[in-house]
Design a protein that fits this description.
The chain is an alpha/beta fold. It contains nine helices and 42 strands. It folds into two domains: 275 residues, no CATH class; 111 residues, Helix Hairpins (Orthogonal Bundle). It has a nine-stranded parallel beta sheet. Strands 2-7-11-15-19-23-27-31-35 form a nine-stranded parallel beta sheet. Strands 4-9-13-17-21-25-29-33-36 form a nine-stranded parallel beta sheet. A hairpin with a 2-residue loop joins strand 37 and strand 38.
């Protein structure tokens, strides 16, 4: 065909010419052309293959159990397709390549199966792009692709790599119930509208480095079996359960901070606490006790914060320390040899008069504070009152026990301060207000 030079120097190819080649089983190879008309495969008589689908899938996505089989390679690169592209319910046996292609109207590949490579590198979808219930057996490349309309990948299956580097989604995009068997790459992808990843399955690494979500991103119900990489990701609101990502999230300080803030914004305060707790643990684990400046005091403070109160988001360690101190000091009061001190009874002073040399009287004063061998009950009572700052009735420490009581009293005030501080922060977070 002679090229159309009226307004564009690129050759103009009628869609019917491409459809005829496909019907004859010939390869389709065009570069830098304009395709006029609809590339609608539904009217062609082609060999068919059966595939098992549920009635719900057939109704919901407009697919069927019978696929038309195309054995041709289809490579339309750096070209403009001005009509609709309807390749629904097709099994492609050869390579499909639309690198740099511009789809001027709806592009529908729903229910299709790509047996080989599916290359949409830098493709431009001006209208809606439908890949729902599509199966990609080989690598699927949408690197740098631009989606101006809806981008529907609901129920899609990616057996090879799914590459969406630098992809731009200007409208609503859904990967709901999509399955990624291999690596799923979304670095630098831009989501300008709502992004739906609900109930997606990521069997391999999922990478969202530098991805930008300008609207809500929903990952509720999604499962991650390997690494989830969110380094330097930008988000507005991310709906996801912390339990679904906690064991797979790669450590990145800014990503953790963004997630903590996000969980607070969407009022998932328990998730915010759990995320903060894991962030502090992993951050501490990366620090060394000694660096080029000498002893690392920051790691020591982190460690103290961890063992004392779980970085302020766990009340359990405080109760553990209170119970341990209470029982530990009670055991000390019980088992400490009386020669080093112990617990003595408090009683009135007495005066004893003795006769010496049959004529001299000797007056002996006794304070009534004789050391005793206290029972376990008395030791527990004494330890509890000492820890809570009280004064035990009828008992007091002597010898080294004086210092033990002093230490236990200080610990009691410290534990009380930690508990009040952690409780206030927890109550503040649970009510949506900043804690103390």
């Amino acid at each position: 065909m002679e090229p159309d030079t009226s307004s564009d120097q690129r050759p103009v190819i009628p869609a019917s010419e491409i459809l005829a080649k496909i019907k004859r089983g010939e390869d389709v190879e065009y570069d830098g052309v304009i395709v006029e008309g609809d590339l609608d495969i539904s009217g062609l008589e082609l060999p068919t293959a059966h595939v098992d689908r549920t009635e719900h899938e057939n109704r919901a996505f407009g697919v069927s159990n019978e696929l038309k089989v195309i054995s041709s390679q289809i490579m339309i690169t750096d070209s403009e397709i001005r009509g609709k592209v309807i390749f629904s319910n097709i099994r492609f046996l050869g390579i499909i390549k639309f690198t740099g292609a511009k789809f001027g109207d709806v592009a529908s590949f729903n229910g299709a199966e790509f047996s080989g490579e599916a290359n949409f590198w830098s493709a431009q979808f001006s209208s809606d792009a439908h890949f729902d219930e599509t199966r990609f057996s080989g690598n699927a490349s949408f690197v740098g692709a631009e989606f101006g309309g809806l981008a529907i990948f609901e129920g899609a299956e990616f057996s090879g790599k799914a590459d969406f580097w630098w992809a731009q989604f200007s409208n609503f995009v859904t990967f709901r119930h999509a399955q990624f068997t291999n690596n799923a790459h979304f670095p630098n992808a831009q989501f300008s509208n709502y992004a739906d990843f609900r109930h997606a399955q990521f069997d391999d690494n999922a990478t969202f480095t530098y991805a930008q979500f300008s609207d809500y991103a929903d990952f509720r119900g999604s499962e991650f079996d390997k690494s989830l990489i969110l380094n330097d990701m930008k988000l507005v609101r991310l709906y996801v359960s912390w339990n679904s990502i906690r064991n797979n999230l790669d450590y990145d300080g800014p990503a953790y901070q963004a997630l903590i803030k996000n969980f607070k914004v969407i009022e998932q305060f328990d998730d915010a606490d759990d995320c903060y707790y894991q962030y502090r643990k992993e951050s501490q684990a990366l620090k060394k006790w000694y660096d080029e400046k000498g002893f690392n005091w920051s790691k020591l403070l982190d460690w103290v914060g961890f063992v004392s109160c779980g970085y302020g988001v766990r009340l359990g360690p405080i109760f553990f320390w209170v119970l341990g101190s209470f029982l530990g000091f009670a055991s000390l009061y019980k088992l400490l040899p009386q020669s080093y001190g112990g617990v003595a009874e408090s009683g009135p002073s007495t005066v004893t008069m003795e006769t010496m040399n049959n004529s001299t009287l000797l007056l002996t004063f006794s304070s009534g504070d004789g050391a005793i061998s206290p029972s376990w009950g008395e030791c527990l009572y004494f330890s509890f009152t000492a820890l809570t700052g009280g004064t035990p009735n009828g008992l007091h420490p002597v010898g080294l026990c004086k210092y033990a009581v002093m230490i236990e009293g200080v610990l009691g005030y410290l534990f009380l301060a930690l508990f009040v501080s952690s409780w206030s922060c927890w109550r503040g977070r649970s009510s949506g207000e900043p804690g103390l």
